[in-house]
Specification:
Layout (H helix, E strand, L loop, with lengths): L2 H12 L18 H8 L5 H10 L8 H17 L7 H10 L5 H17 L3 H15 L5 H17 L3 H18 L2 H17 L3 H18 L2 H17 L3 H21 L1
Helix pairs in contact: 1-10, 2-3, 3-4, 4-5, 4-6, 5-6, 6-7, 6-8, 7-8, 8-9, 8-10, 9-10, 10-11, 10-12, 11-12, 12-13
Length: 264
Amino acid sequence: MTQAYKIIGLIATVCIVLSACVEHETTSVRISSALSDAEEVMYEHPDSALQILQDMHISSSSNQLQHATWALLMTQAKYKNDIKQSDSLINIAYSFFTKGNDMQRKAMVLYYKGIVYNEHNQDDEALKQFLEAAKTVELTEDYKLAYLIHSSIGMIYAYRELSDYTMQYFEKAQQYAQLSKYKDYIAYSYILIARAYALKCEYNKAIESYNEAIKLGRTYKLIKPTGDALNEISIFYNHINNHKKALHYIKEAIQIEETDKKKT
């Protein structure tokens, strides 16, 4: 195992990175207000989204669109809340949304099918789904989802030490993050680029990219991406034997974490 791979593996353990409600073409029934509410808060408050979905009573005998949407959003909510799951829910959504022309839902279901494969260490199958999702999401304007898809592809290539592919997909992820205007994803996109430089052993460029993430995080008070960037950059400073700077950044990361805990 190369030194670069060891570093990218260590960093990945620290931080693995990690929608419009469109009507299905074959039905005139729209999703329920509760499902819409859950989707509305999914990115900012995934715990609240999970609670809404858990409180719903959706059965397989109900409207297919409602059932498939609930299954898809429940898969998404569980993943965002770090709850490992089987493929039972995503298969319900997959069998429904891959048959229609709703490209946003199709891209989303392909992505989360890949996520479930990835959670069960089936990386080849995960990559297959992610790549198909990447093609599909280009037909939509869901830039947040596009960011997630491309960053996931990049991470698989990073673990395989395919540095050029890693950089290619992380750069695409950054483009979509910028288009989404979602500050957390923009900050994380700089972290991804830093990891790609690390894989290429271009440590100075990696540090520059981490500093961009930190700068953005400080400006917009982005707690988690700032903390993750600080932790990761400290690893690099340790690697180049600049222990003083490494200690400085790790102390700031701890301070941010403690401040955030006090707020909650």
